[in-house]
């Protein structure tokens, strides 16, 4: 099996693994180190979590390490990137349910330290709820880590492609958004049909994501190859949200498998 290969694409640090297993293990190892370093430095680790199919293996590895006594999330606090809106937490399609299945229900993280945007807030209160989420992250001292996946349209969290100037896009707060047609099409996998997809969501803003002290972008599979290449080699533009990660390149690592890296050249 070929070994992982480090790449420099423009200013970005990119690590290409032979397969998704090895990429996921790398991500889990880094998360474990970030937790240990943050807990040693200030008694807690503040982790931004992602959903989607991509991080499932990472959560499986972290849960296995906690079960084996090799890792503890006792001193961790988590903030998830996003949640559909409106949705009930017990709905199996909510990201609250996803996190419970893949991580929270399997590790020693305290339930009252796991924050997810609330898909049940009344619409008139959504903006204040979102602003409060940003204030909580700040009050917690900011994110030690943000784990990210990438949508096929380049979205991070549910920060969808936009025609804003980069500096305005980078300053976007946590807020209620409409999902992009490509995001809706991809969500049919979970929801069953285009009509069943919940077309709005609450998402952590680009500002909070870019402020994380460490960012892991994990992308696996051939379907992600074109957008990964655009984000890393094309212009830095809000039209490709993940390209904006290059404005904080020294804090970001892109962990890819060979299929996702196929268009990097
Ligand atoms: C969803 C999530 C994103 C995630 C993306 C990719 O839209 N809100 O945070 O990165 O999908 O998902 P997947 O890993 O399933 O390709």
Describe the structure.
With 265 residues, this protein is α/β, with parallel strands linked by helices. It has one domain (24-215): 3-Layer(aba) Sandwich (Rossmann fold), CATH 3.40.50. It is built from eight helices and eleven strands. It has an eight-stranded mixed β-sheet. Strand 10, helix 8 and strand 11 form a beta-alpha-beta unit. Helix 1 crosses helix 2.
CA radius of gyration: 17 Å
Q: List the uncertain runs.
A: none
User: What integer is the average pLDDT?
Assistant: 97
Bound molecules: 2-amino-2-deoxy-6-O-phosphono-alpha-D-glucopyranose
Tally of individual helices:
8
Could you say what the CATH architecture is? 3-Layer(aba) Sandwich
CATH class: Alpha Beta
Distance between the termini: 20 Å
Number of domains: 1
Residue share in β-strands:
15-25%
Give the oligomeric state of the chains in this entry, treating copies of one chain as homo and distinct chains as hetero: single chain
Following the backbone from N to C, one meets helices and strands in this order, namely EEHEHEEHEHEHEHEHEHE
Spell out the blueprint of helices and strands.
Blueprint: E1 5-9, E2 12-17, H1 20-42, E3 45-49, H2 56-67, E4 76-80, E5 82-85, H3 95-102, E6 114-115, H4 126-139, E7 145-148, H5 166-170, E8 175-178, H6 181-191, E9 200-203, H7 206-210, E10 215-219, H8 225-233, E11 252-257
Parallel strand pairs: 2-11, 3-4, 3-7, 4-6, 7-10, 10-11
Antiparallel strand pairs: 1-2, 5-9, 8-9
Helix pairs in contact: 1-2
The structure holds 2-amino-2-deoxy-6-O-phosphono-alpha-D-glucopyranose.
């Amino acid at each position: 099996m070929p070994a992982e290969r480090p790449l420099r694409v423009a200013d970005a640090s990119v690590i290409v693994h032979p397969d998704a297993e090895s990429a996921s293990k790398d991500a889990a190892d880094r998360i474990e180190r970030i937790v240990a370093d943050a807990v040693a430095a200030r008694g807690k680790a503040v982790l931004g979590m992602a959903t989607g199919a991509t991080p499932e293996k990472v959560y499986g590895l972290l849960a296995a390490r906690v079960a084996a006594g090799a890792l503890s999330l006792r001193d961790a606090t988590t903030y998830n990137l996003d949640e559909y809106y409106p949705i009930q937490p017990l709905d199996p399609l909510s990201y609250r349910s996803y996190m419970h299945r893949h991580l929270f229900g399997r590790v020693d993280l305290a339930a009252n330290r796991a924050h997810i945007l609330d898909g049940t807030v009344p619409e008139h209160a959504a903006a204040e709820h979102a602003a409060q989420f940003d204030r909580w992250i700040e009050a917690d001292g900011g994110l030690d880590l943000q784990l990210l996946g990438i949508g096929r349209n380049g979205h991070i969290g549910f920060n969808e492609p936009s025609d804003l100037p980069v500096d305005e896009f980078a300053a976007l707060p946590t807020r209620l958004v409409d999902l992009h047609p490509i995001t809706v099409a991809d969500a049919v996998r979970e929801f069953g049909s285009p009509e069943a997809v919940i077309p709005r969501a609450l998402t952590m803003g680009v500002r909070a994501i870019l402020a994380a002290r460490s960012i892991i972008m994990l992308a696996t599979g051939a379907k992600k190859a074109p957008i990964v290449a655009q984000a890393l080699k094309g212009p830095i533009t809000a039209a490709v949200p993940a390209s904006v990660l290059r404005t904080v390149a020294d804090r970001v690592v892109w962990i890819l498998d060979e299929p996702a890296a196929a268009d990097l050249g």
